[in-house]
Amino acid sequence: MARGGKTVLTDVGSVEVKVLRDVAGTFEPQIVHLALAVTVEGNRDILGIWAGAEGGEGVKHWLRVLTELKNRGVEDVLMLICDGLKGLPQAVEAVWLRTVVQTCVIHLLRNSFRYAARKDWDKIVKALKPVYTAPMAEAAEERFLEFTESWGTKYPAIVKLWSDAWAEFVPFLAFDVEIRKVICSTNAIESVNARIRKAVRARGHFPTEAAALKCVYMALMSLDPTGKGRKRWIMRWKAPLNAFQIAFEGRLAPANN
């Protein structure tokens, strides 16, 4: 990996597949995790895919995954974006002590819709926007209290969802608007996951774990065949890179400097 194995962003996501588990024909859900990195040069690289039983992830699992990545050359990660994956923040702290763990705001909003009636979705988004666009963490907390007063009685599960994720939600509020844009609006791994889900749905289920991973791998290999998407991303990368350079001064320099 370029620049001494440094990545600016690493986004960890997951998709569900159904794998045959016994001769009786029982198919059980299995989670496939993906790690996508944005390098200093603006390249988006898939670092790996890992399969595991549903709910099977935890600190030990993520320690193995992150240690594998570090041993393969990922020396430093400025920010790691994830969606409430159990045990991941603790594992990150053990492997890359200075990495900022950030909950994906887009996923947090989408998960909120699970607990709200469809007719209230637009109102929920409007009420939460002052929270995730607040100028600082203190202001976000004030806006969240207002949201709780307005919607907490009707949708207490949404309040709990955001409260439980708060420690990993607020870090990006301390950064420049260009960094916020990358985290909030340029949800790099979501388009990858959407392509994988489409391929998985077309198959329905898989006879083995290896077959499921092969399907995921083939979907990844079909991404951006012309390279136009990569070129557009790199062109837009300069402004965020400058913001990261200032916010994480010294971390992006080559290792031999």
From TrEMBL:
GO terms for molecular function: DNA binding; transposase activity. Keywords: DNA recombination, DNA-binding, Transposable element, Transposition. It comes from the Bacteria. One of its GO terms (biological process) is DNA transposition. Belongs to the transposase mutator family. Required for the transposition of the insertion element. This is Mutator family transposase.
